[in-house]
């Protein structure tokens, strides 16, 4: 095994926190994107527009 690489230095606590924060932000953004893409809107459609997807009856209100 060649010995051309330098020994790895330990990661500082601040750098570890930054990496953890970046990973959590990325995971949160991915989760928000998936929930937005898969979820149905809770608000009823505007009165002048047709509903694009079916929604729950409780989300539509009583003005049916």
Unreliable residue runs:
none
Tell me the structural class.
mainly alpha
Rg computed from alpha carbons, rounded to a whole number of angstroms = 24 Å
Q: Number of helical runs?
A: 2
First-residue to last-residue Cα separation: 74 Å
Mean pLDDT: 78
**Major beta-sheet overview:** none
For the secondary structure, the number of strands is 0
Notes on the structure:
The protein has 64 residues and is mainly α. 47% of the residues lie in helices and 0% in strands. It is rod-shaped, with a radius of gyration of 24 Å. The mean pLDDT is 78.
Layout of secondary structure:
Layout: H1 13-38, H2 57-60
Keywords:
single chain; 64 residues; mainly alpha; 2 helices
Structure described in brief:
The protein is an all-alpha fold. Helix content is 47%, strand content 0%.
């Amino acid at each position: 095994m060649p010995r051309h690489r330098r020994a790895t230095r330990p990661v500082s606590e601040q750098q570890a926190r930054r990496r953890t924060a970046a990973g959590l932000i990325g995971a949160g953004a991915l989760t928000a994107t998936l929930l937005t893409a898969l979820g149905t809107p809770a608000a009823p459609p505007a009165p002048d527009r047709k509903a694009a997807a079916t929604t729950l009856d409780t989300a539509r209100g009583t003005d049916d």
